[in-house]
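Figure 6 in text form: structure in, sequence out.
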């Protein structure tokens, strides 16, 4: 299980508020719910927040009733603002939302369905990048940490 993932139109994420005592997967089917989850700290860690925002934008794209590019882009801008407000200090969130908007406005993708699919594909790529970054950090960290070391992590 990834920290956050897409599963047939549902964004699933580990509810990190419950860790380490309880492992629970929360499911969200609307970008407003994803924004609330980000705000309420279901998901933590800058890259994971970015991935959640990317998937939130994918939900917004697929839930939009738009049948033309202009209306879809307007709906995506509205979703972007909702997601940005979820955690106004999260740089990765803004970066991910802006990345999804760039995908949506790519001139090579003209159809509404093409835009939807392109956003989902890029949100998945973003989430995959997060996993690879974490694996590399773990590999680098493993070379520095010896048996018996105590590790304290903290977030502001």
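Output sequence:
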């Amino acid at each position: 299980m990834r920290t956050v993932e897409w599963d047939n139109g549902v964004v699933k994420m580990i509810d990190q508020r419950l860790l380490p005592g309880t492992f629970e997967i929360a499911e969200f089917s609307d970008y407003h719910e994803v924004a609330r989850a980000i705000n309420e700290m279901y998901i933590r860690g800058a890259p994971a927040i970015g991935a959640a925002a990317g998937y939130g934008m994918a939900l917004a794209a697929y839930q939009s009733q738009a049948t033309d590019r202009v209306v879809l882009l307007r709906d995506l801008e509205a979703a972007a603002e909702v997601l940005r407000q979820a955690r106004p200090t999260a740089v990765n969130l803004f970066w991910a939302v802006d990345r999804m908007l760039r995908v949506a406005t790519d001139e090579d993708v003209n159809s509404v369905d093409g835009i939807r699919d392109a956003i989902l594909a890029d949100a998945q790529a973003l989430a995959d990048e997060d996993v690879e970054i974490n694996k590399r950090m773990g590999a680098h960290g493993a070379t520095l940490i010896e048996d018996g070391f105590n590790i304290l992590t903290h977030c502001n």
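Caption detail: Helices lie at 31-39, 46-63, 69-86, 91-104, 112-144.
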